[in-house]
């Protein structure tokens, strides 16, 4: 019986947003107003598709993108935490569920040699076209009214658990580590005994405490973290139990 660790990526594993970081590759490191203002709530992936076309049109190549993306810092303590998980893989299964994309996450994890820590990465599929443009697609279709149209993290988590159960794998508990508004939907799916770990001062923490104030708190335990060392300390306590 293992613990399942579920990580968000942007502002959780890395201390920034991979999709906005790529703008450093744009001419003058900014996007034209028309493009910036074209974002519609819930349609982030479509918006990023237009950003990648703009970068391609301006001659930004794969190498330059990769060099830029691998300069994003990890959040404080995250290198230690991922090292600890990597050394104790017999105790943890570990997945990423993220609204970033496969290319960015792959680059960043491989550059830091952390790709082996994670069993699976669920994120928007991306690839370079024959003309050298980065393209991105929605991860899946879903019917959840709470989530952006390209990704419902609850659906991903539920389907992953069902698939694992079919293979005879169940978990003593789930630890969900995230920061954003789109992490609330999977946190609401967690049961008593599971743990949600929202990043201090970020949207997920605010939304969870708002629910508690409205007297409909989440079912799982909630532990706020500022540094990934907080997460590591807690995991060390859990595995001693």
Automatic annotation (TrEMBL):
The active site is at residues 8, 10. GO terms for molecular function: metal ion binding; phosphatase activity. Mg(2+) binds at residues 8, 10, 179. SUPFAM superfamilies: HAD-like (SSF56784). Keywords: Hydrolase, Magnesium, Metal-binding. Pfam families: Put_Phosphatase. Its cofactor is Mg(2+). Substrate binds at residues 19, 99. The keyword Magnesium applies. The keyword Hydrolase applies. Belongs to the HAD-like hydrolase superfamily. PHOSPHO family. This is PHOP2 phosphatase. The lineage of its organism: Eukaryota, Metazoa, Chordata, Craniata, Vertebrata.
């Amino acid at each position: 019986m293992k613990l399942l660790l579920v990580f968000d990526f942007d502002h959780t594993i890395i201390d920034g947003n991979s999709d906005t970081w790529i703008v450093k590759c744009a001419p003058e490191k900014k996007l034209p107003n028309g493009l910036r203002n074209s974002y519609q709530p819930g349609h982030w992936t479509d918006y990023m598709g237009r950003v990648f076309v703009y970068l391609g049109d301006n001659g930004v190549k794969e190498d330059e993108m990769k060099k830029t993306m691998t300069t994003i810092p990890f959040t404080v303590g995250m290198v230690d935490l991922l090292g600890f998980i990597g050394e104790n893989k017999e105790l943890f299964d570990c997945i990423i569920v993220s609204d970033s994309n496969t290319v960015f996450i792959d680059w960043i994890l491989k550059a830091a040699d952390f790709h082996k820590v994670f069993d699976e990465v669920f994120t928007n599929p991306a690839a370079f076209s024959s003309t050298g443009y980065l393209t991105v697609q929605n991860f899946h279709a879903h019917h959840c009214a709470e989530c952006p149209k390209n990704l419902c993290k609850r659906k991903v988590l539920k389907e992953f658990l069902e698939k694992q159960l079919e293979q005879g794998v169940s978990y003593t508990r789930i630890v969900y580590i995230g920061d954003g508004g789109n992490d609330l939907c999977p946190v609401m799916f967690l049961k008593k005994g599971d743990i949600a770990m929202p990043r201090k001062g970020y949207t997920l923490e605010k939304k969870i405490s708002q629910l508690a104030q409205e007297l409909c708190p989440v079912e799982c335990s909630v532990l706020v973290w500022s540094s990934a060392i907080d997460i590591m300390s807690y995991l060390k306590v859990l595995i001693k139990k």
